[in-house]
Amino acid sequence: MSAPRTLLLTGAAGGVGTLMRELLPPYGYELRLLDVAPVPGAPDAIVADLADRAALREAVRGVDAVVHLAGISLEADFEKIMAANIAGTQYLYEAAREEGVRRVVLASSNHAVGFTRRPREGEPPIPVDTPHRPDTFYGLSKCFGEDLAQLYWDLHGVETVSLRIGSCFPEPTSVRMLSIWLSPADCARLLHASLTAEDVAHTVVYGSSANTRAWWDLSTARALGYAPEDDSEVYAEKLIAEKGLPAEGSPDDLYLGGHFCVDPPRWPH
Ligand code: NAI
Ligand code: 15L
Asked: What's the whole-number average pLDDT of the chain?
């Protein structure tokens, strides 16, 4: 496969989308943007809902690859999750298949495996083939996305790298995030590796930086050529002083998904 140059970036108005709009073009990508909300500073962005199949078909036409970030990114009523994350993702894959787009990079989430116990000191990191253990309807929709990606590879030859992103924000803001933080620069590195690696079929990777306190195995990401450069440890002293370590037996202490397992933040709309 020749290296992709034109990308459809869905979810371009969101937190990660906004960061990637700045960080991906230096790798040589030309971005076409899509979001249900207007994208500030981008009058050419396609404003469309993932429910709009005709708009999706037009949006993917002629691009080399899709980076799919759009959707509900927290917990919500099942009906909303079903429309945006489940049906919407299938519509997007179908549009990609119909238009002959060969590769998708899919934003999955650590919440697909959120009820997995986090490793204790001395235990091995969590592998990508650990069973799905969603902590929310939101996490469940990410499990669906991963399985959908596998189906579109097996049935139609559409390749996907599913990124189980930890926490992608400019800085970690909790002690849990020290283990799962994905710096924006490393997110761009991971996207670039996912877009350019040869023959990925359907590959699942965890998305985090090279964190000293990491909980999961980055080897499938590294095998794509991902070489993270950041480590949340530089924030550790300050965050631990401010917030304290999670209490023993608390969700943040026990599970990858942390507080999502008991009291997930809810999608505001
Ligand atoms: P976000 O909530 O800031 O952005 C999501 C974007 O999707 C928003 O701009 C929203 O308008 C758009 N959107 C929602 N429903 C839509 C629909 N029906 N049609 C078209 N656009 C729609 O989320 P964020 O943080 O930027 O995350 C991006 C992706 O990465 C999401 O899929 C999220 O689940 C995933 N992710 C993010 C993590 C993070 O740390 N930021 C961690 C794990 C996964
Ligand atoms: C996610 O999947 C969310 O989209 C993001 O907003 C963060 O809350 C992240 O997980 C997390 O686990 O910190």
From this structure: 97
On the question of pLDDT at 1 being above 70, the answer is no
CB 170 within 8 A of CB 186: no
Q: Which amino acid is at 246?
A: P
% of the chain exceeding 70 in pLDDT? 99
Q: What class does CATH assign to 6-261?
A: alpha beta
> Does the pLDDT at position 2 exceed 90?
no
* Contact yes or no for 6/64 (Cβ under 8 A): yes
Which whole number is the average pLDDT over 29-47? 97
Give the type of residue at 24.
Answer: L
- Residue 4 is given by DSSP the state P
Which of 64, 83, 85 minimizes the C-alpha distance to 74?
85
Residue 245 CA to ligand 2 center (angstroms) comes to 19
Listed by start position, the domains of the chain span 6-261
Confidence of residue 90 (pLDDT cuts 50, 70, 90): very high
Question: Which bin fits 89, alpha (ψ -120 to 50), beta or left (φ > 0)?
Answer: alpha
How is residue 249 written in tokens? 């037996």
Contacting residues for 240 by C-beta, under 8 A, at least 6 apart: 175
Ligand with minimal distance to 176 CA: 2
Q: Is 138 one of the catalytic residues? A: yes
Ligand closest to the CA atom of residue 9: 1
Tell me which of 73, 205, 266 to substitute to probe ligand 1's pocket, judged by most ligand atoms within 8 Å of the beta carbon. 73
Distance 248 CA to ligand 1 centre (A): 31
